[in-house]
TrEMBL record:
Protein name: GxxExxY protein
Lineage: Bacteria, Pseudomonadati, Verrucomicrobiota, Opitutia, Puniceicoccales
Origin species: Cerasicoccus arenae
InterPro entries documented for this protein: GxxExxY, PDDEXK-like_dom_sf
Pfam short name (any one): PDDEXK_3
Top-level division of the source organism's lineage: Bacteria
Length: 126
């Protein structure tokens, strides 16, 4: 499965999950349930992945934690907020740059309708 195919599964699964659970739960509830549903569909999902950051010649083992990485190709950053602000999109773009991955999804389960809470971020070309 390539990044775009994985992305389609992520979007479909997120919408179904949001319809079932509704908005406003804690982020970790969506993280656990989304990971479970993606794994049920045969995808490999790693949760809270420590990503090292190199700066000034020093490697810091845990520069940040990616909420979910699917099939080692797509990063998912989860939120459960009333509104996404520009820094959230910048955060995911930075994660993509630091990992060398090309595709990420910012999923805000706090939106009334999940379609309004999905942001696709690309770093480089797919």
């Amino acid at each position: 499965m390539d990044e775009n195919e994985i992305g389609s599964v992520i979007i479909d699964t997120s919408v179904k999950l949001h319809m079932a659970l509704g908005p406003g739960l804690l982020e970790n509830v969506y993280e656990m349930t989304l990971a479970h549903q993606l794994e049920k569909q045969g995808l490999s999902v790693a949760r809270q992945v420590a990503i090292p950051v190199e700066y000034d010649g020093i490697q810091f083992e845990t520069g940040f934690r990616a909420d979910l990485i699917v099939n080692q190709l797509v990063i998912i950053e989860l939120k459960s907020l009333e509104k996404i602000i520009p820094v959230h999109k910048k955060q995911l773009l930075t994660y993509l740059k630091l990992t060398g991955l090309k595709l990420g999804y910012l999923l805000n389960f706090g939106e009334e309708y999940m379609k309004n809470g999905i942001t696709r971020i690309i770093h480089g070309s797919l």
